[in-house]
């Protein structure tokens, strides 16, 4: 089966976006082009920020999602940036527990259980041991 391994996003400031995703999600810069594009990788997925060449900002991307292990560590890294989140997602959202934005306002979801199976907030609570 084909696997999605690359996403290109138009950015007003590709270098700042690269710094953000490297710092928050520990991605690595794998390429810079003479035209100003910056490509990052997590070892499996490639994320490229293309410089904005037109007036205004094109739309189309609603959000992307990251599978994470330590939400507290991600929240601490996000706190160093002037971004929104992470904020809780409604319980009926089946893939992610929280959402945040990058410096240009692009939204991304943060999920501990991943994106391969649907799971509501009720199901997540049933898996966690009760606090004493």
Structural class: alpha/beta
**Low-confidence segments, ≥5 residues, pLDDT <50?**
none
Distance N to C terminus:
45 Å
Annotation field: number of helices: 3
Going across the biggest sheet, name each strand in turn.
Answer: 1-4-3-2
Strand content: 25-35%
The total domain count is: 2
Coarse shape: globular
Return the average pLDDT rounded to an integer.
88
Q: State Rg.
A: 16 Å
Largest sheet: 4 strands, mixed
Q: List SSEs in N-to-C order.
A: EHEEEEHEEEH
Number of strands: 8
Helix content: 10-25%
Description:
By secondary structure, the protein is α/β, with parallel strands linked by helices. Strand 3 (38-41) and strand 4 form a beta hairpin. The longest helix is centred in the N-terminal third of the chain and has 12 residues, at 14-25. The chain has helices spanning 14-25, 71-78, 121-127, and strands at 6-11, 28-32, 38-41, 46-51, 63-67, 87-88, 98-101, 107-111. The model has no long low-confidence stretch (mean pLDDT 88). The chain is globular and about 50 Å long. The protein folds into two domains: 1-52, 2,3-Dihydroxybiphenyl 1,2-Dioxygenase, domain 1; 64-132, no CATH class. The protein has a four-stranded mixed beta sheet, with helices on one face. A four-stranded mixed beta sheet has the order 5-8-7-6, with no helix packed on it. Helix content is 20%, strand content 28%.
């Amino acid at each position: 089966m084909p696997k999605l391994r690359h996403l290109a996003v138009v950015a007003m400031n590709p270098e700042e976006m690269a710094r953000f995703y490297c710092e928050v999600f520990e991605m690595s810069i794998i390429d810079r082009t003479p035209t100003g594009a910056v490509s990052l990788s997590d070892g499996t997925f490639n994320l490229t920020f293309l410089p904005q060449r037109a007036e205004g900002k094109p739309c189309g991307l609603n959000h992307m999602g990251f599978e994470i292990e330590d939400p507290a560590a991600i929240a601490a890294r996000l706190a160093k940036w002037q971004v929104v989140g992470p904020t809780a997602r409604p319980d009926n959202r089946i893939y992610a527990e929280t959402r945040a934005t990058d410096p240009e306002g692009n939204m991304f979801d943060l999920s501990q259980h991943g994106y391969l199976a649907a799971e509501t907030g009720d199901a997540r609570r049933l898996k966690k041991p009760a606090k004493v």
